[in-house]
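ARCHIVE CARD
Drawer: 12
Card no.: 0347
Subject: one protein chain, sequence and derived structure
Cross-reference: see card 0346
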Amino acid sequence: MQLLRDDDTLFAALIARDPSYEGFAYVGVKTTGIFCRLTCPARKPKRTNVMFFACRDSAQEAGFRPCLRCKPLDIKPPASEALQTLRERIKAEPDRRWSAEDLKALGYDPSTVRRAFQREYGVTFAQYARSQRLGLAVGTLQQGGSVMDAQLDAGYESGSGFREAISRLIGDAPARMTAHQILTAQWLDTPIGAMLAVVDDAGVHLLEFAERKALPNEIKRLRERVGPIRFGHHPMLDRLAGEIEQYFSGQLTAFTVPVVQKGTAFEANVWNALQQIPVGQTRSYGALAHAMERPNAVRAVARANGANQVAIIVPCHRVIGADGSMTGYGGKIWRKQWLLNHEQRMATVQP
């Protein structure tokens, strides 16, 4: 299950800026003495001028310096300058209503910014900013503030427009919102793409990659089963973000953050069985069914595996085909392969 590492394959991955080799292959450019990630946005060198390395240490031992643009020594690839700056601006001014003219004043092309946020989070910059703004308003209402205060916090001049936006977010009118259990969502950045996390005081309800096609339906199902969702800050999100960062840096193999996703009793049993698969190992659907003493329920196990909404922590990526093939994974097959390779590497260095 190792990634292909011959130089021709790696050079093709370099040209394509293939993220599936992130953390597992680096390129050294002989003419500059610099080594990069394969996803580096810099101009691509000629085939005869490159060397490939399996790790950063090997590249440095060969005399190559880390690229200042893609920063291969960092755990996560650097976000684009626009993404990083605008996320910080939204965080500093969560109640601001951003316009195309605001972006131009900062030196950014609005269409470029739109594509960057769409690519990273699956939503436009305007939608990203609006979700954070509405989350602030929901927080005001939860803390006993007036609808007018929340409306002003969210930057809405129209009361009807504010009520409509809040209703889309939580499925109820603002004046009745405080009676709801509110889930809190936020984006978490990882080396292989952004993930949407949804939590409450009890634990993690959802953790999925932004590109998962089933994500909209999962959010809808979560609202129906548990309650409305708002973007914002929550101590459980801080705890989750810390453990996810440790996992991707190779320092954590067992999560302690609680998982509270809702499902049938059978689904819950499958999800529990998934968490018993050791890091660095895999199981087939049939082996998982046998371990649960349900040998004839292979298809049901596969469906429950696919219904898991808490990726990585409930490691559905550790289930493969009986022939060792990479079977379907909502977060994309290359990510499944990446996670398995990452965990195999972690398992080999564990004491």
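Annotation on reverse: The chain has three domains: 7-66, 79-179, 181-351. The first helix runs from residue 7 to 16.
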